[in-house]
Specification:
- With 225 residues, the protein is mainly alpha-helical.
- The protein is built from ten helices and no strands.
- Helix 1 runs antiparallel to helix 4, helix 5 packs across helix 9 and helix 5 packs across helix 10.
- The radius of gyration is 19 Å and the shape is globular.
Length: 225
Amino acid sequence: MENFFLKLSVMLVPALMAITCHEVSHGYVANRLGDSTARSLGRLTLNPLKHLDIFGTLMIFIVGIGWAKPVPVNYNNLRHPKRDMMWVAAAGPVTNFSLAAISAIAMRGVYSIGSGLAGGGANALLEPILLMLAFSVYINLLLAIFNLIPVPPLDGGRVMTGLLPYRQAEAYSRIEPFGMIIIILLVFFTNIFGKVISPILEVGIHLLAGPQSNLVYTVTRFLMR
């Protein structure tokens, strides 16, 4: 039980920040492009309670990937619906990539400070921060990469719809009602994580974390086992 609460204390803040910022970014970009639905419903806030999906949050701790309540976007309110919906969708993964980069820079800084300190008390204070930053690199990269799978309703599917010509985009968007079934089949009945997501994730971790890449892997293995 003690081990569970230790893991929870490290994972909770980065996980909530990752999924909350992901959703807020969708609403923020939609608002800038003409749709104020999220703003009018009070969803343009970093308060995680406004976005929390209990089951989606629990899944982060169980399988390492989760979700929040989707921010509502009214496609018809956008000034250029087809093009603008692509930017609204892309905002989520871009935000997660940005948070991963910021976390990696901060992690390198905290690691350097800790390495230069001799005092045990100072290192004990820095260690939980370092662990949370390392997990933040991992969870934000994973959410960004996973959401770029080109199957609607994932963000990658909506970006793909925006890139296709109108006729093909209309045909492609028709798979959205079956999108979650397709995603579940991909996740549980194919090796998409091992063959596609994990290699991209490893490249991202090495690019961002550099010499501290092993720290990200070590922390993640400990938290997810």
